[in-house]
Amino acid sequence: MKIVVTSIFVQDQDKALEFYSEKLGFVKKEDVPVGEFRWITLVSPDDQDGTELLLEPNDHPAAKEYQKKIFADGIPATMFGVADIYKEYKRLLENGVKFTMEPTKMGEVTIAVFDDTCGNLIQIVQK
Length: 127
Prior knowledge:
Helix content is 26%, strand content 42%.
């Protein structure tokens, strides 16, 4: 068994697609109408057959509440691995990404956290 799709709640699918593809550099894999929303997934450009990230509408009240509360408490919704966190931090800053935590060493890993503009904090990590 392996993870093939993981999801993240977003406030606006179009805005999220733009952010995750244009700012972060993920590649759109699927974009299929599903009722009033869409099944939109993205993948890493380095692993296009790998795990897909689903941009899940936060339309359900429980999803909205969950998203608001973890954001307010400063809890990242998900984590992305990077090979060189300082290089990635610089690249993302140059793309206009706003960080809430600059790269910080924590034991054996270094992490940084940014706002995805769609209701989430996202953590990047270098092991």
